[in-house]
Amino acid sequence: MMNSRWTRKIVVMIRNMKFQNKLMFGYLFACVIPLIGVSVIIFTQSAKGLEDSSQEFASLYTSQIRTTLNQFIDEYDKVTKSVLVDNGLIYNLAEEQSLSMEELINQKVAVQRMLTRVTWLKSEISTLMLVSRDNNVYQYTTTTSRVNENALLAQAKEWNKKYLNTDDPFFITGLHDRSYYEDKGAGAVVTVGRVLFSSNGAYAGMLLIDLDPFTLLQLDHDFVLARDKYGMSVIISNRQGEIVYHSDAASGRLSWDQVSESEMNAIKDTGDENLILLSGSTSKGDLSIKTEIPRSKLLQKINRIKGITVIVIVLSCLIIMLISFGLSYTITRPIKALRRSMKQAETGQYLPIEKEQANDEIGSLVYSYNKMILTIRTLIEEVYIAEIKQRQAKFMALQNQINPHMLYNTLESIRMKVLAKDDDESAEMIMILARMFRLVLGKGGRHHSVKNELEYTANYLQLQNIRFDNMFSLKIRIPDEMLACTIIPLVFQPIVENSINHGFLDYTQPMHIEIEGAWTEEGEIVIRIIDDGGGMSIDKQQELLAGLVDAELDKYKLEEDVKSERSGLGLKNIAERIKLHYGDQYYLTIRSGSERGTIVEIYMPNQVG
C-alpha cells in the first residue's frame, strides 16, 4: 500500500515536471545508469580476478614454503641422526651411572668431539646441546653466550613430557625465549631436537639445536616482495600447535614476544570473512602452514581503481549533464518563446516571434503560429475598425431617434397653442425652439459642455411652462468649474422630459425639478436630476433598472427590437450612449426619492473640451 502511494507520488511529480527538466533528467539517466552498471560489472570482475590471482599466488607461495620446510626437516633430520652412528657413545649416555670416573671423562671428551662435528655440518648452527638421561648437560657454542645448565634442565623436563612418547623422535619446538642462556638476551629461538635411544631401546637423552626462526625459511627475494605487497602473513606451527615461525615477526611488524603471547589466536581459524586463508603441511606432518591474505590489502589496487572510476563517473555525469542541458535548452527555448507569445496573446498583444527558427518540427510549429498571430491581428484590426464604425452609426442613430421625437412634441404644442388662441406666446415658443435647434445642431455634437446642456434643458422647460402655465420650476446647483466640462448632447433634456411625462400627473400641483452636480474622490462627475413628481412603483423601478442593464448588452446593436421601437425615447437610450461614448465603467441609474418623486444619477468622466 505504501509502495503504491509513493509510486503514484513519483509518477505525479514526473508528470508535473517541466518539459526541459524531463528531457535533461531523462537523457542523464539514460546515459548514467548504463555507465554505472558497466563500471560496477568491471569492478566486480576485476576484484574477483585479482582475488583468484592472489589465491593462486598464495597457493604457489605456500607450496614454496612447504618445499623449503621439507628440505629443512630432511636436512636437520639427517644432522640429528648423525649422532646415532656412534652406538657406544649413545649407550654410555644411557648408562652414565655405571661408568667410572675415567670413562666419564672419556665420555665427555667424546660427546664434545661429536657435538663439534655436528655443528660443522650446518653453518647456521651456533649452539648445540645434549642432555643425558641422568641430566648431565653437554654443550657446544660458537658464540660467547653459554647455556645455564640448571635453567636448561628445567626446560628440557617440559620438552621430555611433550616429545618423549611421540612416534617420531625428531621434533621442532615452538618459539621460546632465551631464558636459559646466561646472557638472557632478547628475542626468541626455535629448538630442533631428537630424542636419543640406545641400541637396546633405552632412553639415552636429547640432542637440542637452537636456531634463529629466520633459518626455517630461506625464501627468494621476489617471494618476499610479493608477500609484503599483498600483506600476506605466514604462520608455521608444530604438531603441538605451537608457533614456530611468524612472517609478521620476521618482517618486523611484530616482535617475537608479541607472537608468543598471541600464539593461540594466531593459530586457530577465526572464520574472518575479511581474510583469505590457505592451509598446508609438510610431507611428514611435522609442521603446519597457514597463509592469510587480508582482502582489504588485496583489493587496495582495485579500490584505487574504484576511486578513479567514481571520479570518472562523476565527471562523465557533469559532462552529460551539460550536454543534456544544452540539448534540452535548444529544444525547449523555442517552446518557451512560443509560450511567452501565447501569454501575450492572452492579454491582447498579438506579437509574432521574431527570432530565426531552425528548420525542424518546432521551427515549423513556430512558423505556423506566427502566421496565425498575424492573421488574428489582421482580423482583430478589421473587426475593431468595423466596431468603431458601428458605434458611430449607433450613436448617430440614437441621436436621430431622439431629435425628431422632441421636434414632434414641440411642434405639436405650438400647433395646439395656435389653435387655442392667437397671441404672442406662439412667437415666443417658436423663438425658444429655434434657440434649442441652434444649441444642438450648431455644435454637431462637438465640444458640447455641461453649460450648453443646461441651457438646452432650461429652454425646453420654458417651452413646457408656456404649454402648462408655468407648472414647472428648475433649480440648478452645479459647480462653476464643472460647467466647462464636455458632455454628449441631449442627456439632461430627455430625463427632464421623462420626468414630466411620467411624474406630472396632477395638473393642479406644480412640479419642481433640480439638477445638481458633484465631484467624486477620483475627480469624476456625478449629475443627479431630482423631481418631486408622482414617482414610481417598485415593479416599475425594477423594470427600468433591468432595461438599463440591457443597455450594456445592446450598445453594439444597430437594430432595435419591436418593444424598443414602441417605447420611444427613454433612459435606456441615454444609458447606451453613455457606455458607447465613455466606456462600461460609466453609467446611468434610477431610484425613487425619499418620500416621492424620482432621482436619476449619471456618472461621467471629467473631460474639458
From TrEMBL:
This is HAMP domain-containing protein. It is found in: Cell membrane. Residues 329-381 form the HAMP domain. The chain crosses the membrane at residues 23-43, 307-332. InterPro entries: Bact_2-comp_sensor_kinase, HAMP_dom, HATPase_C_sf, HATPase_dom, Sig_transdc_His_kin_internal. CDD domains: HAMP, PDC1_HK_sensor. It comes from the Bacteria. It is a multi-pass membrane protein. The lineage of its organism: Bacteria, Bacillati, Bacillota, Bacilli, Bacillales. PANTHER family: SENSOR HISTIDINE KINASE YPDA. Keywords: Cell membrane, Kinase, Membrane, Phosphoprotein, Transferase, Transmembrane, Transmembrane helix. Its main location: membrane.
